[in-house]
Amino acid sequence: MHFDDRLATVLRSRSSGATMARIQYRQLLDLLGTLPVEAEGAQVDAACDRLGELAGAIPVADRATMLREPGMRLRNPRLVALLAGGEPAVAAATIAAAQLGEEEWLDLAPALPPGARALVGQRRDMGPRAAALFARLGMVPPGLPGLGEAQPAREPAPQTVPRAAGSNAADIGEIVQRIEDFRKKREPVEAGEGSPPQSASAAERAPIRLKAFDFATDAEGCIVWSDPGMAPMVLGMRLASHDVTAPAAARATLALALRHRQPLRRLLMELAGAPAIAGRWQIDAVPCFDPGTGAYTGHAGRMRRQTAPVSSPRPAAREGEADRMRQLLHELRTPVNAIQGFAEVIQQQLFGPAPHEYRALAANVASDAARVLAGLEELERLARLESGRLTPEADGSDLAAILTSAVGQLRAFTEPRGGGFDLALPGSDSLPVAMGTADAERLVWRLLATLAGAAAPGEMLKLRGRARGDLAQVTLALPQSLAALDDELLWQALAGSASRALSAGIFGAGFSLRLARAEAAAAGGELRRKDKRLKLSLPGLTSGMARHSQESGSEERA
Q1: Sign of the Cα pseudo-torsion (291, 294, 299, 301, in order)
Q2: Which of 43, 75, 221, 435 is deepest in the core (most CB within 10 A)?
């Protein structure tokens, strides 16, 4: 579904009384609370403003009761921060009902008022990283040691409260002693002379390693804004510095993209510094321009930490993982098929007439379900190829004819954009390979369509085919958007773009190339990268005859 007008519908209705105000307040809580983290815009801002207006007309106790309802869904950090900055009762109910992850709490807690921040520290789902953050913020767990807790050995305190008959002087004296013990425990922390065992254990925990943060640079490529948790460590850092001692080390590709005001797509950078920031990061950012003058003002985007690649599993383990993957795909395919079927029922009005708007929405749902099913099919095919459960047929086909046909079919997409493939084949115009026609066509189309979809307008890609010994080899030039990636990112699966006329699939170009590599390997060949090109090698159909000719001394081609 491409749009959701529920928020606009609520904003269009006006609250004419106390009951309508409560209903609309509850509706906005549910809609804003389930928005994704990246949701923003004028409509979201208007909804937050309306929520504040309605809060003034609803008593605090009623709002706190709404937030404590079992069905309340508070998953949006912006809404949690807005509610937690209000009255204490509302803040307590909000923090108790919020359904945020630890990473989101770590980003949100420093911006909350001290009272709300202390309530976050009392949540039972906070881990050691949150405890370390609260310790740095100067927060301590509320309360005094319990009456049943062991107390350190101490000298008897002088009796300061007289014992009167029938009074609770002994209880008062014990409370005074507990206050004194609590104060003594805090003195080393405040004076900086050391730390009690509780603080020492928190200090020894592993430092926080953030996984992602947003940033913005000025026109010189210097970071001038970042998320609050990362701002002290990255503000003033230059993304493409020529100084070898600079904390940020990037490739020349990044500096070139900044100089030409181009988007940054999955570029890598090494950052040095504290454990929270040190390591390898992936940058995705877009250039920003002044709306009045059109002048370049800098880049804005996000950095994501790159994790270490996982070593290849053993064949037996890989086969077991493939079985589990196929089982999971089967479980996913069943509900998607059901969703597609119900959408088609509505779109085709099989159970009765339906409004045109609902039919349009149902058509979009059916289309999205078809894309999901296609993606699941590709995942299953990759799992079967890598586990050896699927082997292409080896009855033979002409790779040259398949290449010529695929290039001709793609002209409808490439020629209007001023690009395409520069195809050159051997003089014989024939490349027989030991691979079935259907499998070879699938492999060639996947490769060419993926490269054509990633190519920029006007970009012409060289495509060469030749026979080399027992192999048929095809060399394909990578488009600039893929040639700029390193080997790790080239084969990485990422979310694809559904708006392109020629899409590589829902998992992006990297996954399509990885699937093509698995198909080539299952056929006895290989697909590998060499500089800015891809080389596809497939076994020839007459490999035995060629080997026999070489053994008999016929080596004129060499």
Answers
A1: positive
A2: 435
According to the model, what pLDDT value does residue 373 have? 87
Residues of the chain predicted below pLDDT 50: 1-3, 140-167, 187-207, 309-314, 316, 497-499, 543-558
Structural contact between residues 394 and 430, judged by C-beta atoms closer than 8 angstroms: no
Structure tokens at 526: 């290989």
pLDDT in tens, 492-549: 766 554 445 566 677 788 888 888 898 888 888 899 998 889 999 988 875 443 444 3
Residue 401 neighbours by CB distance under 10 Å: 17
The pTM assigned to this predicted structure is: 0.43
Q: Provide DSSP, 205-224.
A: SPPP---EEEEEE-TTSBEE
How do 420-424 and 460-468 pair as beta strands? parallel
Residue 27: alpha-carbon gap to chain centroid: 29
**Angle at the Cα of 11 (from 9 to 17), degrees rounded to 5?**
110
Cβ pair 142, 106 in contact under 8 A: no
**Closest to 512 measured CA to CA, from 493, 533, 486, 538:** 493
* H/E element, 432: strand 432-433
Q: How far apart are CA 397 and CA 434, in angstroms?
A: 7
Cβ(51)–Cβ(32) below 8 Å: yes
Q: In 162-263, where do the E strands start and end?
A: 212-217, 223-226, 248-250
pLDDT, one tens digit per residue, over 136-165 is 665 544 444 443 444 444 444 444 444 444
Instruction: Enter the tokens of residue 37.
Output: 């983290």
